[in-house]
Amino acid sequence: MKTAAFATSHPTLWSKLRRGTALSCLATLAMILLEARAFGTASSSGQQIYLTRCASCHGNSGEGVDEEYPHPLVGERSLVELTKYIEKSMPKGTREKCVGEDAKRVAAFIYDAFYSPVAQARNKPAPVELSRLTVRQYQNAVADLLGSFRGPAHWDFSHGVKGEYFKSRRIRGNERVLERLDPVVQFDFEHTGLDAEKFDPNGFSARWEGSILAPETGEFEFIIRTKHAARLWINDLQQPLIDAWVKSGEDAEFRMSIRVVSGRTFPLRLEFSTAKQGVDDSQKNKKEKPPALQATLSLGWLPPFRATETIPAQFLAPVQNPEVFVLQTAFPPDDRSVGWERGTLISKEWDQATTESAIEVASYVEAHLNELARTSDDAKDRTERLREFGARFIERAFRRPLSDEQCQLFVDRQFKDSGDPVTAVKRIVLLSLKSPRFLYREIDNQRDSHATASCISFGLWDSVPDQQLLDAAASGQLVTREQIAWQVARMLGDLRARSILRGFFRQWLRMDQLPEIAKDPQRFPGFDESMVSDLRRSLELFLDDVVFGEASDFRQLLLMDSIYLNGRLARFYGVDLPADAPFQRVPLNAEHRAGVLSHPYLRAGFAYTATSSPIHRGVFISRSVLGRSLRPPPEAVAPLAPELHASLTTRERIALQTKPEACQSCHAMINPLGFTLENFDAVGRFRNEEQGKRIDASGTYVTRQGELVRFAGVRYLARFLADSEETQAAFVEQLLHYMIKQPLRAFDGAGAANLQQSFAQNQFHIRKLAAEIVTRAAILPEPVGERTAVTTK
């Protein structure tokens, strides 16, 4: 009777018995008999409750059973949340739920045995995954690999370009009358302060030199606007990108695109001459006061995700750096299904892209071989110089010295078999870039100073080590924590590390995943493409201010009550600035604004064309800020059209749409968080009313510990998030994933608890957290899990 009672109270198990084979029936019956014995004793043990009421579906170790419940019993709910979920939903398919003390006991057992992060790390440590270079890492690595033969780049934070002005139409050193730093190239020469007495207004010229910093990787279109003669070089100083020195017709705008790599600086030169275009010679021979300089010139660009603009001073420097190799070969995108880029997918398309890339690099090396190898066609020691170049190239590609066997295979044999030193070098390049030692991060389980150097450089730069780091590895100066931390601190100040951090924040805020931001022109006149571009730059300036400021305080990302605005944005958002005001930090109403949560770019991005979207905003807070996982909805549901419920506010309409119980499993958390931002309309402007009703911006959140927190608007939410250990832990984990590109549990020394404690001790200093993540990963003696390895020559 006990067996029958137990089996009938578990319909899933009973159905397996009824439809199974004879052998499976015996096994199932044995489980029923064993568990019925425990069922009959009414044990109060959480483990025994689990065995009697849960294991039939979830497995004895929470591994899942058959097709009906295949997923492991692991997750991110706290013990309190897990208990509530069990009381409400478990066991499925039975009338009698597990409630009260039984629910608490079984939840405690499940949590401690296999559900919690600690239990998961104990039961199944995550391995350090064998990972190829991501697309970003490959592009950066080949750029820096070739750049290492040209010398280091330098950056001058004075910003701008060096301008030289000449008193004739030809650029001659002996006719230079002025040299100065120009923040940007946007001139109406009549109003630039140039002394017309020193210039012939009918014939003068100028030249600007410096470097340009790429804020993102991608295609940038460069634009010259002038009626006069001009030509522009970017990166390649031998071949102009734009040549309008000799032209016909009335064209006054010239555009050309070039691909650039984020965090690298590219040499720039711009030349200008009044020549004969647009010059008024009628006053040339009259003895009167020289007329004003009648000429205009501007240098702009069209970056990804932005509108055309004059190149800002922050991306210009008056020093001219070496040329940068920029890979043109397209790669298939990396897997981002787990929230960060992983190089775990190997496909035919990826392999083909690596081959084409190797050929592209080899061709570039051949075209620039004398420069890279520092030799010449007629040099007596050219062959030896090329051999040295080939050996250094492959050592830098492999990130470690070559063994005698490898030197024989990769260098000596190529020079011997090819019969031509140039061909030998090309073969070396191809062999290097197709070798697993270049393409993969973790091979042969080697944990020496050279592996440490690679861990540091790929963590901070997504690229190969520089010469200083390689020298430290070779001389045994990457052994102690202090030695590693010193190198990390040095490299963290590099532009490439800044680029990595900027990339992380674009991902954290979902900036590059936002659809094209377009708004109803009838509701929001003036909100156009230029406005969106300005808002994006405003957010980028805000992030730079916080992240690269002295305090670098994570909490200020959520709490700061100021914003960067220019004249155009200020007018739209109701701030008193001159119409032509450049970007500047402007304080706003502290009760209305709260850091990135209220920034108009994000509020406009997470909104519809005419209305706000509490759902999109709530999902962003849940996933990005709190680090909560949300399951995809069981079916796609179109939002209720506002015109169908014209009398309802957005909050009321969303509450109506997501009222069904099937929606509430996620929307019970999403909606109350999103509602706290309802004071901001679809373009991020503050409002107090909608549909003639006062905005209700109250919200709630149930913490992982089961505490119900209430908010009265964005400022209250921001304060909670800034102080919340949940938020801080989520930020730590996401930054680690982005920089190390491995599971959190794969590194014993980089555990979440230790890193979060260090983060708090350092006053939530973002850059110090990045340094600590890379340092801990680099000094790790052995990973927790078994390392997957590739052994190759």
Structure description:
With 793 residues, the protein is of the alpha+beta class. It has four domains: 2-123, Cytochrome Bc1 Complex, Chain D, domain 2, CATH 1.10.760; 161-317, Toxin - Anthrax Protective Antigen,domain 1 (Toxin - Anthrax Protective Antigen, domain 1), CATH 3.90.182; 329-441, no CATH class; 508-723, no CATH class. The chain has 30 helices and 18 strands. The strands form five sheets. Strands 1, 2, 4, 6, 7, 9 and 12 form a seven-stranded antiparallel β-sheet that branches. Strands 3, 5, 8, 10 and 11 form a five-stranded antiparallel β-sheet that branches. It is globular and about 95 Å long.
What are the main properties of this structure?
43% helix, alpha+beta, disordered C terminus, Cytochrome Bc1 Complex, Chain D, domain 2, 5-stranded antiparallel β-sheet, Toxin - Anthrax Protective Antigen, domain 1, 18 strands, 30 helices, 4 domains
Task: Note the overall shape.
Answer: globular
Biggest pleated sheet = 7 strands, antiparallel
Q: Tally the helices.
A: 30
Oligomer: single chain
Strand tally, please?
18
Quick description:
The protein has 30 helices and 18 strands.
Secondary structure topology:
Layout: H1 2-8, H2 11-19, H3 22-41, H4 46-53, H5 55-58, H6 79-89, H7 100-115, H8 117-123, H9 135-147, E1 161-166, E2 176-182, E3 186-188, E4 205-213, E5 218-225, E6 229-234, E7 242-244, E8 253-260, E9 265-273, E10 296-302, E11 309-310, E12 316-317, H10 348-367, H11 369-373, H12 382-398, H13 404-418, H14 421-434, H15 436-439, H16 449-461, H17 467-474, H18 481-492, H19 495-508, H20 529-547, H21 554-559, E13 562-565, H22 567-572, E14 584-587, H23 600-605, H24 614-625, H25 650-657, H26 661-675, E15 689-690, E16 693-694, E17 698-702, E18 708-712, H27 714-723, H28 725-740, H29 752-761, H30 766-779
Antiparallel strand pairs: 1-2, 1-4, 3-10, 4-9, 4-12, 5-8, 5-10, 6-7, 6-9, 10-11, 13-14, 15-16, 17-18
